[in-house]
Amino acid sequence: MARALFFPIVVGSLIAAHVGVSLEVQSIRHGLLRQAEVMAPLPAPVLKLAALGYRNLVADWLFSRTLSFHGGQLAQKAPINDETYRIIYRRLDVASELDPYFVDPYFFGQAVLTWGAGMPQEANRLLDRGRRYRPDDWIIPFFMGFNAFYFLHDNAQAAAYLMEASRHPGSPPFAALLAARLASQSGGTGMSIEFLQQLAAQTEDPATRRQIQRRLEALKGIWLLERAVERYRTRFGEMPTTVSDLVARGILLRLPIDPYGGSFYLDSHGKVWTTSDLRPIRR
Amino acid sequence: MNAIVVEGVSKTYPDGFRGKKVAVEGLSFEVPQGAVFGFLGPNGAGKSTTIKILLNLIVPTTGRATILDRPVTDKAIRSRVGYLPENPNFYDYLTPEELLWFGGKTSGMTTARIRERTDQLLRLVDLGHVRRKRLRTFSKGMLQRAGVGLALINDPDVVVFDEPMSGLDPLGRKLMADIIRGLKQEGKTIFFSSHILHDVEDLCDHVGIMVKGRLRRVARLAELLSAKPAGWKATVRRLSDGARARLAGLSWTCSDRGGFTDIQIHDQDLGAALDAVRDLGDDLVEFSPLRPTLEDIVLQEVERAEGGTA
Amino acid sequence: MRNLWAIGRITFLEGVRSRFFYGLFVVACLLFSTTYALSYLFPRDVVKVAVDLSLATASLVGLILTLFWGTESLAKDLEKRTIHMVLAKAVSRSEYIVGKFAGLAVLIGVSMLLLAALASLSVWTVDALTDDQYGVIHWSLFLLSLAMTTLMYGLVASVIFFFSSFVSSTFLALGLTLVVYLIGQSVEELRLLIQAGADGIDISPMLTAVVTVAYHVFPNLAVFDFKAQAAHGLPVSASTVVWSALYGALYTSVMIALSAWFFRKREFP
Description:
The complex is a heterotrimer.
Chain A: H1 2-34, H2 44-50, H3 55-75, H4 82-98, H5 104-113, H6 120-133, H7 139-150, H8 155-167, H9 174-184, H10 189-202, H11 206-236, H12 244-248, E1 264-266, E2 272-274
Antiparallel strand pairs in A: 1-2
Chain B: E1 2-15, E2 19-32, E3 36-40, H1 47-54, E4 62-67, E5 70-71, E6 81-84, H2 96-106, H3 111-124, H4 140-152, E7 158-162, H5 170-185, E8 189-194, H6 197-203, E9 206-211, E10 214-220, H7 221-225, E11 231-236, H8 241-247, E12 252-257, E13 260-265, H9 270-276, E14 284-290, H10 294-306
Parallel strand pairs in B: 3-8, 3-9, 6-7, 7-8
Antiparallel strand pairs in B: 1-2, 1-4, 4-5, 9-10, 11-13, 11-14, 12-13
Helix pairs in contact in B: 2-3, 2-4
Chain C: H1 2-16, H2 19-39, H3 46-79, H4 83-87, H5 93-128, H6 139-164, H7 170-196, H8 205-217, H9 227-232, H10 238-264
């Protein structure tokens, strides 16, 4: 009788011990993964050689790991420092060098490198390859145009990119319109709002889209105030001292709310801005 | 014409940097058509090498060999030759049918004729019941028999077997012996090597003895075994005193084995020997000439070779 | 001619019935089924990734089969002495080599056909279940890529034959072939690198000479790589295909001719 039980007992206890140990290992891994780091990629020529004819696959893998790293950090609300963003950029760059027709690195780069990382130059450098290899994709020069206008304050360049975008057969009509406006205007909140609205429409990633919409709300508030300031000047022949004057003298029913948590004010030049500086204020 | 002619064949292999290893040397013999030639000798004597030279698997360093007057390097002649290697290895996943088809096709047979011969041969070697089974499922004996089928598929005029009895059980050996006899009946020439002297004695009419790479003796079996007797041997149940007395004048030895006594009389005088046993009656079980057996001859040759005499 | 057919047929039968073949196909099916799951890790280019994955799977399995059967056909034949049963018949050494290779080529062709079917199925499934605006399967390029890969494996098989014809160990023949394969996959990239000149690295003329020689001696396997074209629908001219095929056919023929030549001297003690 005892002999028949020997193996079941031994195997059973070993499995139980293993389960116990693996639970402990899991929590250790969990801690390790919080401090996850992503590695700088090997230089593109080396990876091309090492790929042994499977270049596309290596690009896919490199991108996928970068994407999941970023997603993981976001999910754990772990901050990403500048150094890490630089590495992310290089990974996307190498992936797109291995497979320049691969669309995902470009879109992801646009979403991540501009708002969060503050690297619009790099974003455009990345997108430039996409522009060359995917000439049928009007969105890429559109993104580049947006970056040039919004982050790099280079309207001439932005206009050029948007013109290019508008020439593509699939591009929407607003591209040409925006291009023309950019070429003639020196900027302005109205321009930004239009551009941002189109950008939001093209953005599929919900997180990025929310970011853009929040900014849009703030800019709309500013734009509303700017027009109210104009009406005040026309009506009363002088500039208002504070934004509350606009409500007091009946130009506006109420003041718009800054979604970033700041309050709108008029600066010494009479321009509308907000104390939040369009960055989320932490309470 | 002769079925097989070997002239001055030798085969040496390089051994290390400057050494040479001699596998076979100064080999010359002929096998007449229709003969059964047994090739004898200890392991490493060069028997397999010789056979492989005949099949052009090995190229001789000097000399030449012909089969049916065609050089062995001519691939066409092999469509009239059948070969069974020692411990044959076949492709695991083929069936005997496919194996024989291959043999027949490369020998130039038509598909119809191949089918005919396959049926015939598979019956002959008793593999009909597994004709569609994969060769990897076969036992050693079955593989050997499949090999015989492959060797004979093209109805060859010359058949070359390398240790055909090796690894066979008594039933298998009988089958093989019957096959060889059957082939002889059909007038084929059979050349085979063997350790098993009993089989050679039974089947062959010619014999060649190879030791250490050289052919020591080639002769008709009948001649080898019909030398003048060196004496006489008798097996008796009981040796009478009278017989013992008469034997005293001769040179003799005896040995007992459970109920029988073997006597060897080393004197060529038949009359004296017969006289010695004349009164044994039923106690005389056997009386025959004392001659060297094939085994004795082979051992003799081995000794001579060891002794260094060429 | 009938000898080539006879040898080719038994080579094919032996290969197609090997257990390894079936096992590997099961593995291939499993791998193909992961294509679906893996493709969905990507936000946009789902179909492209599916194409990448299925072509890679088909290629990898095809390579393993080629290496396996390539060594089984010749090197194993020599090691296990199963070659005796063939050469003892009225078959010349050259017929043996060519016939074996023909059987092996058909084996590879048939396997790649099956793998192509599985690959096509897996890519089609991903496409059918996605409303990916970027997802278009360029079928003719997809199949072209698989066809050229097949041709490439014919070349690799001929390299195995070449080494097996004068080397006695199966392992050694396999190892040497793998080295040739690795060099073949890298040689074009290396040459381009050296011609373009890597930043800040001094390239000695010796290295340039070595790479140039290697480029011409070793097979340039990048010639058969149409995976990027298949993934993105990039155009391929008919003349490119024809010249690449010709390159492959000629290199293979040289390898087989050399094998047959070396094999004439081979002995089987």
